[in-house]
Design a protein that fits this description.
- With 161 residues, this protein is mainly β.
- The protein has a single domain, classed as Calycin beta-barrel core domain (Lipocalin, Beta Barrel).
- The chain contains 1 helix and 10 strands.
- The chain has a 10-stranded antiparallel β-barrel.
- The longest helix is centred in the N-terminal third of the chain and has 9 residues.
- About 12% of the residues have low confidence.
Length: 161
């Protein structure tokens, strides 16, 4: 996977938990439709816009299934799939179609830190910071290859239903 794909992947990957963070399960925020818009900056490349539209559903066992249509400037649209579940208060785990291995999410002081690995020794860390309105968040993403920062992304994520 190239750096552009890695950046896009996370930059627009999830909607923020918003008010749901104060409840039992932050994943509830992801039910229904979410949209995200942002800018991705990869070392030695021109920044580009990225957008994702997601549709999430929580099953009876509490597992979130989120399907997203991801649109990167200059690339064909693609589909990304997530399955996430709560494992303990403030801790979530799951899988994502482009991640290699598990995705972990930890609540830290009301913010959410996503971490996972991708092909090519790429490590991704994303911080989602819920807005007071409970329906949006900012996303700050860092991409590392062999421990060196090679990309960043900033985006706004909104719940639209």
């Amino acid at each position: 996977m190239n750096m552009r794909s890695a950046a896009l992947l996370v930059a627009l990957s999830f909607a923020a938990p918003g008010h749901a963070a104060s409840g039992d399960n932050a994943l509830q925020f992801f039910e229904g439709r979410t949209e995200s818009d942002g800018t991705v900056k990869i070392a030695m490349k021109k920044p580009y816009r990225s957008r994702a539209v997601g549709q999430g559903q929580i099953s009876a066992d509490g597992t979130l299934t989120l399907v997203q249509r991801v649109e990167d400037q200059g690339q064909l649209a693609k589909e990304r799939r997530w399955k996430m579940r709560k494992v303990s208060p403030g801790h979530y785990t799951g899988v994502m179609s482009e991640a290699k291995g598990p995705v972990t999410v930890d609540e830290v002081d009301g913010k959410y830190r996503f971490r996972f690995r991708m092909d090519g020794s790429v490590a991704v860390e994303q911080w989602l910071i819920p807005a007071p309105d409970g329906r949006s968040a900012t996303s700050k993403l860092t991409i590392r290859k062999y421990g060196v920062v090679v990309g960043r992304s900033d985006s706004i994520i909104r719940k639209t239903d």
